[in-house]
Design goal:
Layout (H helix, E strand, L loop, with lengths): L14 E5 L2 E4 L4 E4 L2 H4 L8 H11 L12 H13 L4 E5 L2 H18 L7 E5 L8 H7 L2 H4 L9 E4 L4 H7 L4 E6 L13 H13 L3 E5 L23 E4 L10 E5 L1 H4 L15 H14 L4 H22 L4 E7 L2 E6 L3 H12 L1 E2 L1 E3 L3 E4 L7 H24 L5
Parallel strand pairs: 3-13, 5-6, 5-7, 7-8, 8-9
Antiparallel strand pairs: 1-2, 2-3, 4-10, 9-10, 11-12, 12-15, 14-15
Helix pairs in contact: 2-10, 3-10, 11-13, 12-13
Length: about 400
């Protein structure tokens, strides 16, 4: 019996090494990775530039503390500022911590302005922002909040896409709107540009902040550096993680200068966040993500994937109900139970994918994916659907 908490429904499959788009199990079997550690392994496995940066950093200083200046952290922050709307950055260990920082920053901004009662956040059904007490309250999913005592107050929820519902929730106590431009865990729902623009307009009108959770959809995954760029809006705060370290645990909260100004010594902190080792790796990842042509490649492959998924849906209309997502964050709402289908893909077709809410199959390939990789994945999906079709045909008729 494992000594670990029983919080994961783990497969017994264990991987020994990875190379590019492939993971290799302990017996040497190759698996096509359209999972990416849940959108983390943006550069696939064993990227030479990132590995070299990690090895070099490991021979220097791994960790000091944020009571000292960390040159790699300063450099990474400036590069993120130069590439985005932001003026200031706070580094964390995870996406949930980046969201915690974002929520605290928004509330403290209004506190410092003499508006301590302006602390409520409007979030959305189907969202997922992490598993801390604040982020499960922000997500509002009873499956994540049940059993942990009273849900942290200060969060209201509207249906994504319904601007009137959002408008109806605004009060003088509302400080921010929090949204994933593309929901991941909740069912791979992409927000329209019009809806995102409407949220920005509401924030401007009612003196509220727009907080975006781009932990899963950011860092190139949708074919832009950040997904909000598709809507031509400017947020006030953005939380990012996952791909920022391409496997090394690191996250970040990005904010405008005037909003971050009240976060002075004592208001927030992190022991490990932005340490020398983590930020050296993250700088190497950013070298690759911001290299000329890289995000253009992601955008092109997102279009290729979308086209092939449309063909798949036409071929198997009895199993494919809806296509969702944006770029290389793709969702397929299917009729077979998604957990069983994920297992079938893994065990019978050696392809890794992941489920999401609303019985959606989520495809999250590394951003280095090629058209050949996409075609191979589509072939494996088709083979899985064909096998289900054959099993159904062979099953005895029910009287």
């Amino acid at each position: 019996m494992s000594a670990l908490y029983g919080t994961y429904a783990r497969s017994e499959l264990a991987f020994e090494r990875g190379e590019g788009m492939r993971l290799f199990s302990q017996d040497g079997t190759s698996y096509l990775d359209f999972h990416s550690g849940i959108a983390v392994n943006a550069l696939g496995h064993g990227d030479a530039h990132v590995v070299a940066a990690l090895k070099s950093a490991a021979e220097k200083v791994w960790h000091t503390s944020n009571v000292f200046t960390i040159p790699e952290q300063e450099r990474l922050a400036q590069r993120l500022v130069d590439a985005t709307f932001a003026d200031k950055v706070f580094f964390t260990n995870s996406g949930a911590e980046a969201l915690e920082c974002a929520i605290k920053t928004a509330r403290h901004y209004f506190f410092a302005k003499g508006q301590p009662d302006k602390y409520e956040v409007i979030a959305f059904t189907g969202s997922f922002h992490g598993r801390t007490m604040a982020t499960i309250a922000a997500g509002g999913n009873p499956g994540y909040t049940e059993g942990f005592g009273p849900v942290m107050p200060g969060f209201k929820h509207a249906a994504p896409g319904d601007l009137d519902a959002v408008r109806a929730l605004i009060t003088p106590n509302t400080c921010a709107i929090l949204i994933e431009p593309v929901q991941g865990e909740g069912g791979v729902t992409a927000m329209t540009a019009e809806f995102m623009q409407g949220l920005r307009a509401l924030c401007d009108k009612h003196d509220m902040l727009l907080i975006l959770d781009e932990v899963q959809c950011g860092y190139g995954r949708t074919g832009r550096f950040f997904a909000f760029e598709w809507a031509n809006i400017t947020p006030d705060i953005v939380a990012v993680a996952k791909a920022i370290g391409a496997g090394f645990p690191i996250g970040a909260c990005l904010a405008k200068a005037e909003i971050a100004a009240s976060m002075v010594p004592g208001t927030h902190g992190s022991t490990y966040g932005g340490n020398p080792l983590g930020t050296a790796v993250a700088n190497a990842v950013l070298d690759r993500i911001l290299a000329p042509g890289f995000i253009d490649h992601v955008n092109q492959m997102g279009q290729v994937l979308a086209w092939h998924l449309q063909q798949l849906a036409q071929r198997f209309p009895q199993y494919v109900l809806e296509l969702r997502g944006k770029g290389l964050l793709a969702g397929i709402k299917i009729t077979p139970p998604v957990r069983d289908f994920v297992s079938r893909l893994r065990d019978d077709h050696h392809m890794l994918a992941i489920g999401a809410g609303d019985n959606v199959l989520r495809l999250l390939p590394p951003l280095i994916v090629s058209e050949a990789d996409i075609k191979e994945a589509i072939d494996k999906l088709a083979a899985a659907f064909t096998a289900i079709e054959a099993e159904a045909a062979a099953a005895p008729a029910v009287a």
